[in-house]
Amino acid sequence: MSLVFLWTDLLIWILFGAVVFGLHSIKKSKQARKQWREIFESPIAMASAVILSVYVLIGLTDSIHLKFNQENRWAPAGYENQVLSPLDLSLWHLVKNQERTYSAPFASHEYSRSILYDENGQVQQVYRPLKFAAVHLENPDNRQVLWQDLIKKSGIALLAAFLLTLVVFVFHGYFRVRAYVKRDIRVKPKRLPWNWGYLTLFLLLAVMSILYYLSHFYHVLGTDKVGEDVFYQAMKSIRTGVVIGTLTTLVMLPLALFLGISAGYFKGWIDDVIQYLYTTLNSIPGVLLIAAAVLVMQSWIAQHPADFGSSEQRADLRLLFLVFILGMTSWTGLCRLLRAETLKISQLEYIQSAKAFGMGGMHLIYKHILPNLLHLVLIAVVLDFSGLVLAEAVLSYVGVGVDPTTYSWGNMINQARLEMAREPMVWWSLLSAFIFMFILVLAANLFADRVQWVLNPRNS
Amino acid sequence: MLAYIIKRLLFAIPILLGVNFITFALFFGVNTPDNMARAQLGAKQTTPEMIAAWKADRGYDKPLFYNQNAQGMNHVVDTLFVQESAKLFQFDFGRSDSGRQISADIQERMWPSLAIALPTFVIGLFTNIAVALLLVLFRASLLDRAAMVAAVILMSISGLFYIIAAQVLFGKMLHWVPISGYESGWSMWKFIILPVFIGVLAGVGSGVRWYRSIFLEEIHKDYVRSARAKGLSEIQVLFKHLLKNGMLPILTGVVVVIPTLFMGSLIMESFFGIPGLGSYTIDAIQSQDFSIVKAMVFLGSVLYIVGLILTDIAYSWFDPRVRLR
Amino acid sequence: MSKHHPVLSLSQLSIRIGEDDLVKKITFDMYPGEIFALVGESGSGKSLTSLAVMRLLAEGLTIDPDSGIRLADIDLMAQSERQMQTIRGKRVAMIFQEPMTSLNPVIKVGEQVAEVLRLHLGLKSKQAKAKVVELFNEVGIPDAAERYNWYPHQLSGGQKQRVMIAMALACEPQLLIADEPTTALDVTIQAQVLNLLKQLRDERGLAILFITHDMGVVYDIADTVAVMRKGELVELAHKELFFERPRHSYTKQLLKDSIPQVRQRVLQQKQALLELDDLQVHFPVRKGIFQRKVADLKAVDGVTLEIAKGETLALVGESGSGKSTIGQAILRLVNTKNGQIRWLDQKKGWVDLGSLKERDMRPYRKQIQVIFQDPFSALNPRMTVLEIIREGMVTLQVGSQDPVEQEARVDKLLLQVGLFPEHKERYPHEFSGGQRQRIGIARALAVEPDLIICDEPTSALDVSVRAQVLKLLDELQQKYGLSYLFITHDLSIVPTIAHKVAVMQQGKIVESGTVEEVIGRPQHPYTRQLLDSAPSLVKQRIL
Which ranges carry the ABC transmembrane type-1 domain (chain B) (predicted)? Predict the structure, then answer.
């Protein structure tokens, strides 16, 4: 067994490290700590943060890739020499239990009839039973039996979710008690709405564990055209969404910060050049620029297949490239904002005072300008996240998104859309993708809303 | 005013050159004309002569940026980049891979795009402003808060979902309108009504939030207080004083997109089978037709720059403090 | 209406936000033709009181239901919002402090006035327009008919305030509320606007509720004075009585602080420290497609000055006269076009700062420091007080570089400027304007300068705070022999602080000399004009 590092894995862990480091420095600054407390004083922000962290956590467990050797006893049977993540391993039963074709959620038979020759050689059109769903039931066609089974199993899962929440509660409680003992008794901060956090966590875990537990016995969200479990696809898509939403920031931020501050601080010809740069980039319609870049990349890959290793690596590089090109097209907005704010700040008297101390250049920018821009950066990053997750779906639809073999909500929608004309409709792939995406985007938007409200100087 | 427009158009030239450079570098830098020829002619038995002929036919046999064999200015002029750019600047987009005149295609397909994009834009703008003003009138009330929650939810739903859900509901289940298709003339209304409705609905969440925050920012300004001290009612204050000032920041974001309405909407047109420029582009992307993509990139940039100029002109109209020089 | 019936009568007016009372049981009456000055420092509740009369308090503020507000025979507390709309602008009108922002920037000024006439008097547009022109003439706007079609940005500050006054008077209200109407204006304009208000009162028998913090203005204009402090009315008296025998201790202190103390300030020995010789600073005016420079804005146009060790030179001028640019030029924050900035280096003798490179300028940066006007933008909001004060010591390598010793010095500096060591961990927004100004002074002191350029350091402060800050500056001068270049638009503080005065107009020094010479025997017409416009209370003392 060995670790395999895909490019995006590496970057996402670097980003994770940077965020942890950032949180650590927040802890040191009294002002920043106060602002973050204020953000979390809103129950909605608390709930959204819990949802976001669960999504990110799932994305992270899907960002460790292991390669199994033939004789490894951890290796799941039949898939030696595959590169798998912990998420794959925990959903292994779904990878293994592939059906032949479409089936609805909790169905015991396939969705469409297939032609079968019975032993007499007669042609028959029958709904074939599913190979792996509802096989433990003696009479799966009986609705009552099915419901009873579902309720019983959901009960067990609910209990597990409750215990899991309890574990988190106790674990977190330990730290809270420790912090309480060491607290500064002179200040009485507002209590954070932890109960809302726990409630959200419990609800989320309840839904997740019910789906997870039942997925051992049913296809909880149905199967797609080639019989693959939709729940598995939706879970795997989380990583793609999170990677695109966060890593793009990693590309976009340094550009926007460096160019925006330079333009606003140095003015003159530097400003002219930077303004020219972003006006030019802005003038190209975003989708077209992305499309053009992705098309070029596709033909490049097609012409040099040898350079790109395995299909996983190719798909990953394509994801990375998409992130890169999204970053290249999305820095202009923030850059313009930072330029304007830098122009405004550099007129202020504390900048003049610093200059009167002989301070200048990078030192002055780092000490006096950058800290006063960070709230804009933070707001932009959280706001962009949801936009990027939504953009992925559209780009995949247009055909310039992630690799068709990569699991993503966009790809799920794109594939399912072709079946829209079917009567009756195959709706579960679409709906699952939309709901998984909606919850993430809604949480991100609500959180962004709160961040914006707290960090906006006008509201204090 | 005229001097200003001429000045701005002159400024547009370096920007368009930059756009050309980016697309050129993307297409020719990574994908050499030889590769293109091979891809176009098919892999089977392409001789160097065939490739050379293909390149000569399209003028792709020149060097990219610098022609060593030429004289004087022709070092630079007689190159693929300058020749291609010159053609684009004359709006001569050449032929697509399927052999059709791109310029003619664009002229024909522009109108269906506009038939959808223009009503969406106008109705959307009015809806957003009206709702935002209403919320400002009832600010900090239950209605305001509920509407803000609704706006965040509307914003968080993928645009694709709106389209698919509406097609299924109104087209497939209720049979109110055809699911997709297009006819010119008066009968087009039944084809455009659903896309327009979806376009407005998909934009209403973010639009209302944005305009509301603009109006709320204005409402704390001194002139609003003076207007109230005059004895104006809240509605008069909103419509007479606030709206006119709030329009200024709205103009910045809105006017610039007006020219680009010609480009149509990619996903809307492709879902509803509208023969506009959006679906034209998407077909080109999916069939990897570089000439069309290049033409659309250039056209998009030109329209964007026109939009920037229009924004400035609109500003000088609405804001007496701005004089164009 | 009889003279003996009050126009406005407040009884037990209380205004609260949540549980806190911001205005506490205010009671007073105003009579026709009376100018009633409501005086107080920021946060005293005087503006809230006036907004309560208009029933225009911001959301979240409520008037106590037991309060009484009567306008002549109308009980304003009992009016519905709709009824109030027929009263506002018609029977009570209001003008505000900031004429720049109080007019709608995108509507023609004439139209903004005509709007009131159409609304309340039901005039047709043509009649309304004729009436507006008439009003404009009355309030002294030249070319009234043409100005009707102008937009606010095309008018000067004084003219905008005249438009506001015309708008307020359009429907001939009984009561005019003027909320600090002259604070944002230069002294010469202030005097004109005050005269206009007095004249209108005389002609129309108007009652004016005049809200101000400026005792000089009160002395010139008021008939009756009421002083508010922290939401309470502490003193109410006729003007003469008020200025002769103030009763409340707070009022006494307020009067003492707002009237300049004339002090004879003589330097024992005079040793020149800084000399400006024919200093010129130009800013390019660019135009056209290629932003070619077409002209120079001569911000500073040949200024010659001299400051001695331990001396305060007051540089007086109205906004736009170029006085702040001189300070920036000395600090090398702007480049000089011509002339010399000579600084006496103890070792090297005279050095021309204007010709130095930034690196060679560094040793002199610790000798010349600056404090600013706006206490809100002078301190970086993301730094603690400790970081702010220590910044200069670290950057310019002044004193010990050991963090612990530096911290001890910061403690000392804080005590010196009247703050406490425990303040050092706080952020600027936790302090009041006066305290911030003290932090700014400590920051400048930290590098042990010889000259401090004070760029309007007190103009954003309340009078009592202003007096304290001036006193602090004076003490520091006595103790360390500091020199000050004191840039100000306010003539009244000059005798309190300065040894010498220079008066500036349009980039040039028009008159300079000792305080007694310039203020006592002004030669230049501009100096005389400035002195004439000063409130008579100030004039009496300093002349």
Answer: 110-314
Q: Are A101 and A422 in contact (CB under 8 A)?
A: no
Cα–Cα distance for residue pair C34/C205, rounded to 1 Å: 8
Cα angle A360, A362, A365 (rounded to 5 degrees) comes to: 80
pLDDT (mean) for A53-74: 83
Tell me the chain C residues in contact with residue A355 when contact means C-beta distances shorter than 8 Å.
331, 333
Question: Does residue C466 fall inside a structural domain?
Answer: yes
ipTM of the complex: 0.87
- The answer to whether the Cβ–Cβ distance between A296 and B27 falls below 8 Å is yes
Residue A365: the pLDDT is 92
Element (DSSP H or E) covering residue C9: strand C8-17
Contact A398 B304 (CB under 8 A): no
Nearest-angstrom CA–CA distance, B206 and C219:
55
CATH of the domain at C479: 3.40.50.300
Residue A306 has pLDDT above 80, yes or no: no
Predicted local distance difference test score (pLDDT) of residue B125: 95
For an interface test with A, the pick among B34, B155, B158 (most A C-beta atoms closer than 10 Å) comes out as B158
Do C303 and C436 fall into the same domain?
A: no
Look at residue A173 and tell me if it is in a domain: no
- Over 80: is that where the pLDDT of B73 sits? no
Alpha helices in C291-365 (DSSP H): 323-330, 358-365
Please list every residue in chain A whose beta carbon sits closer than 8 Å to the beta carbon of residue B35: 299, 303
Compute the average pLDDT of residues B222-240. 92
Q: Is residue C411 assigned to a domain?
A: yes
Mean pLDDT of C437-442: 92
Question: By CA distance, what is C360's nearest residue in A?
Answer: A358
Domains held by chain C: number: 3
Provide the mean pLDDT of chain B.
Answer: 85
Instruction: Write the CATH number for A421.
Output: 1.10.3720
Q: For C373-411, what is each residue's pLDDT tens digit? A: 888 889 998 899 999 999 989 988 888 889 999 999 999
Measured CA to CA, the distance from residue C286 to residue B271 in angstroms comes to 52
Say whether C379 and A354 touch across the interface (CB within 8 A): no
C287 with B325: Cβ contact below 8 A: yes
C289 CA: distance to closest CA in chain B (Å)? 6
Which pLDDT band holds residue A70 (cuts at 50, 70, 90)?
Answer: low
pLDDT for A40: 92
One-letter-per-residue 3-state SS of C54-85: HCCCCCCEEECCCCEEEECCEEHHHCCHHHHH
What CA–CA distance (Å, rounded) separates C56 from C44?
Answer: 18
Q: Residue B301, class by beta-carbon neighbours within 10 Å (0-12 exposed, 13-18 middle, 19+ buried)?
A: buried
Subunit contact C396:A357, Cβ cutoff 8 A = yes
Number of domains in chain A: 1
Q: What is the mean pLDDT of chain C?
A: 88
The model carries a pTM of 0.88
Asked, for residue C13, whether it belongs to a domain, the answer is yes
Q: What's the pLDDT tens digit per position in B101-116?
A: 888 999 999 999 999 9
> Do the chains contact at B226 and C151, CB–CB below 8 Å?
no
Residues of B in contact with C85 (CB under 8 A): 231-233
User: Which residue of A25, A34, A269, A350 is the best one to mutate when testing the C interface, meaning the one whose CB has the most C CBs within 10 A?
Assistant: A350
A303, A394, A445 member nearest B160 (Cβ):
A394
Task: Determine the structural domain holding residue C221 and report its residue range.
Answer: 8-101+174-256
Chain A / chain C CB contacts < 8 angstroms: 59
Residue A249 belongs to a domain: yes
pLDDT digits (tens, 9 = 90+) for C2-45: 457 899 999 999 999 888 889 999 999 999 999 999 998 888 88
Residues C56 and C181 in one domain: yes
- CB within 8 A of B227, min separation 6: which ones? B236, B237, B240, B241, C104
Q: How many CB pairs under 8 A join A and B?
A: 123
Q: Which residues of C touch A358 (CB under 8 A)?
A: 358, 361-362, 365, 395-396
Does C242 reside within a domain?
yes
A166 belongs to a structural domain: no
CB neighbour list of residue B320: distance below 8 Å, 6 or more residues apart: C105, C106, C151, C153, C154
Given pLDDT bands bounded at 50, 70 and 90, which one contains residue C462? confident
